[in-house]
From TrEMBL:
GO terms for cellular component: type II protein secretion system complex. This is Transporter. GO terms for biological process: DNA repair; protein secretion by the type II secretion system. The lineage of its organism: Bacteria, Bacillati, Actinomycetota, Actinomycetes, Mycobacteriales. Pfam families: HHH_3 (PF12836), SLBB (PF10531). The chain crosses the membrane at residues 40-60. One of its GO terms (molecular function) is DNA binding. Residues 179-198, 209-228 form the Helix-hairpin-helix DNA-binding motif class domain. InterPro entries: Competence_ComEA_HhH, Endo/Exo/Phosphatase_dom_1, Hlx-hairpin-Hlx_DNA-bd_motif, RuvA_2-like, Soluble_ligand-bd. Keywords: Membrane, Transmembrane, Transmembrane helix. NCBIfam families: competence protein ComEA helix-hairpin-helix repeat region.
Length: 231
């Protein structure tokens, strides 16, 4: 009987050849989507870009999550301030008369008549130091006339007198004011102003001939006044 049962079971499980023709559907399973090769390449490229951006973002972050400080921008070099001029600059004065070396001397601001005399080599024998106020402060362009004993007293240092005349009735180019310069033959207000402007721009006159460099003074006018002026 066991053989009969086994034979019957074998008939049930024996392939009939109809199994491949069964049309089995699975209604609960979503349909499959077909992706082309080109679409797959584009998708892969987009994914690579996204991953690259994420990595770049992480590289700019520190361990605690804060953004890493960016390198400071190179600042423009600070403008170099010009070297400060010496306080007050220097002054140039003319020392004439009874001194060892007559002419222009350069001194520091705050210098006095006594300092100018020392810079000129000192007094000659027979000079009259009492005729000068050696404690007087000097100004740029001033002239100091050191007289001899018994000579007519010189006008105050740096002063041109009421008419701007220096010792001996001469007009000082380096110290006379506009009124004093205007006393010269052919020198009016405009020319006097030009003389003053020239000496201020050039630190004073160093020679009488420099009058030829002043605007408004030609050869004829120079010949008329050269014997009536001094430094």
């Amino acid at each position: 009987m066991s053989n009969s049962v086994a034979s019957r079971l074998g008939e049930f499980v024996r392939p009939t050849g109809e199994e491949t023709r069964l049309d089995i559907s699975f209604p609960d399973q979503p349909p499959r989507i077909a992706i082309g090769t080109r679409t797959a390449i584009i998708a892969a490229g987009v994914l690579a870009v996204i991953v690259g951006l994420m990595l770049s973002h992480l590289l700019f972050r520190t361990g605690d999550g804060a953004l890493a400080p960016s390198a400071p921008a190179a600042s423009a070099p600070a403008a170099v301030a010009p070297e400060a001029a010496t306080s007050g600059g220097t002054i140039v004065v003319s020392v004439v008369g009874a001194v060892v070396v007559q002419g222009l001397v350069t001194l520091e601001p705050g210098a006095r008549v006594a300092d100018a005399i020392i810079a000129a080599g000192g007094l000659l024998e027979g000079a009259d130091p009492a005729a000068l106020n050696q404690a007087q402060l000097l100004v740029d362009g001033q002239q100091i006339v050191v007289p001899a004993v018994g000579a007519a007293p010189a006008p105050p240092a740096g002063s041109a007198g009421s008419a701007g005349a220096a010792a001996g009735g001469m007009v000082s180019l380096n110290s006379a004011d506009a009124a004093g310069l205007s006393t010269l033959d052919g020198v009016g207000e405009a020319t006097a102003a030009a003389i003053i402007e020239f000496r201020e721009q050039n630190g004073g006159f160093t020679s009488i001939e420099q009058l030829m460099d002043v605007s408004g003074i030609g050869p004829a006018k120079f010949e008329a006044i050269k014997d009536h002026v001094t430094l």
